[in-house]
DNA sequence: TTGTGTTTTATTGCCTCC
DNA sequence: GGAGGCAATAAAACACAA
């Protein structure tokens, strides 16, 4: 044992190296040697070991036979007899062993099963030890108060370790869950990304087609305008104005599509950063189903991007002028209704609302990350 | 029986609280 | 300043495979 012991005089414990205290209690007539000799005569080697261990006949523990005998039923249930005390099983040199024992420095001895059970129960009630309880427990168990305090201290340390292991397991499993979610969302994102590219190509093709028609219309309008100007020179040509607006709007639409595309496609970094936010998923930020729309508004600067089922018909069998549609509905209908064509079946989600575009509500985190 | 890893008991030094 | 808690550590006791 390294160094000198810390002396706890106030608790009355002897600590290491206090000296052999023999029978100073109410049953002081029972000297240590008498006690041991009687045990040797009446007990098997095991019970001798048990009784001896339970009463902790260490130099510091033998401060009185009262504490020595106060704890009942001290059979040591488990444990081998490989301990130091096996020496007492040999009758022929028992006295020599006793002398040898008491000239040896203090040895550690484990508490009995019953002592430990008693302490465990007490620990369950309260894991901190007030002085009164410590004294009482020490009395009940035939231990030094200091031993009880040390046991509680070590027990608290073990409890803390176990608790940390539990916490670690919980965190580990929740991390794995979130990791799986994240990987699924990445896959989903890639799918959407390719869809956006496809639709952008489509849109550009339509735009090309539209401008060709516009050119034809312009030629026709010029002829009309010439005829009309002859009749009503003051009147402004309505069709021309209409068509010039159409051109502008087509441009606006293309810009908006690329804008939204970049929002969807260019959010790879956001997903990465969202990784670190995963651990804050309790935040209402991620539970807000409307949040995605709000973010989209912020990105586009247009509060009119409310993705509702669009009544506009963008099919090609309509007049080409139908291409020019209010931008408030054009983009969503170009991009999102096509989701129904994907492998994923969103047609019958478990829970949906008007803000999650038909995605299962639990997938809303995706939108929080993407937008 | 022995070597080795684990558990338990105990010590030490530092810190906080009263 | 003393009491008590905690982290780190030592060392004995114990379990178990070879």
UniProtKB/TrEMBL annotation:
The keyword Cell division does not apply. Residues 102-162 form the Homeobox domain. Residues 104-163 bind DNA. It comes from the Eukaryota. Gene3D superfamilies: Homeodomain-like. InterPro entries: HD (IPR001356), HDZip_class_I_plant (IPR045224), Homeobox_CS (IPR017970), Homeodomain-like_sf (IPR009057), HTH_motif (IPR000047), Leu_zip_homeo (IPR003106). Its main location: nucleus. Belongs to the HD-ZIP homeobox family. Class I subfamily. One of its GO terms (biological process) is positive regulation of DNA-templated transcription. GO terms for cellular component: nucleus. The keyword Zinc does not apply. Transcription factor. It comes from Dipteronia dyeriana. One of its GO terms (molecular function) is DNA-binding transcription factor activity, RNA polymerase II-specific. Keywords: Coiled coil, DNA-binding, Homeobox, Nucleus, Transcription, Transcription regulation. It is found in: Nucleus. Pfam families: HALZ, Homeodomain. The lineage of its organism: Eukaryota, Viridiplantae, Streptophyta, Embryophyta, Tracheophyta. This is Homeobox-leucine zipper protein. Residues 161-209 form a coiled coil.
């Amino acid at each position: 044992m390294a160094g000198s012991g810390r002396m706890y005089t106030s608790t009355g414990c002897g600590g290491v190296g206090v000296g052999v205290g023999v029978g100073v209690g109410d049953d002081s007539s029972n000297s240590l040697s008498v006690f041991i000799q009687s045990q040797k005569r009446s007990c098997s080697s095991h019970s001798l070991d048990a009784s001896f261990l339970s009463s902790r006949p260490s130099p510091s523990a033998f401060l009185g036979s009262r504490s020595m005998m106060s704890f009942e039923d001290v059979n040591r249930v488990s444990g081998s007899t490989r301990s130091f005390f096996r020496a007492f099983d040999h009758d022929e040199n028992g006295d020599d062993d006793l002398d040898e024992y008491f000239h040896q420095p203090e040895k550690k001895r484990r508490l009995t099963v019953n002592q430990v059970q008693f302490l465990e129960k007490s620990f369950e009630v309260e894991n901190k030890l007030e002085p009164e309880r410590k004294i009482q427990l020490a009395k009940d168990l035939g231990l030094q108060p200091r031993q009880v305090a040390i046991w509680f201290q070590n027990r608290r340390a073990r409890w803390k370790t176990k608790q940390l292991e539990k916490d670690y397991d919980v965190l580990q499993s929740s991390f794995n869950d979130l990791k799986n979610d994240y990987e699924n969302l990445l896959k989903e994102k890639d799918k959407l990304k390719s869809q956006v590219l496809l639709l952008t190509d489509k849109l550009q093709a339509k735009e090309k087609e539209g401008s060709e028609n516009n050119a034809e219309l312009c030629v026709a309008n010029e002829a009309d305008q010439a005829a009309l100007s002859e009749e009503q020179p003051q009147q402004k040509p309505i069709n021309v104005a209409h068509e010039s607006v159409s051109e502008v709007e087509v441009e606006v639409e293309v810009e908006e599509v690329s804008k939204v595309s970049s929002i969807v496609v260019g959010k790879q970094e956001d997903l990465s950063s969202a990784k670190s936010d995963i651990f804050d998923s309790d935040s209402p930020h991620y539970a807000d189903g409307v949040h995605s729309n709000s973010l989209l508004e912020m990105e586009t600067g247009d509060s009119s991007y409310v993705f509702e089922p669009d009544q506009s018909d963008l099919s090609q069998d309509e007049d080409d002028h139908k291409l020019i549609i209010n931008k408030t509905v054009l983009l969503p209908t170009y991009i999102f209704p096509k989701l129904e064509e994907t492998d994923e079946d969103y047609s019958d989600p478990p829970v949906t609302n008007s803000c999650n575009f038909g995605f299962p509500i639990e997938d809303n985190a995706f939108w929080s990350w993407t937008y």
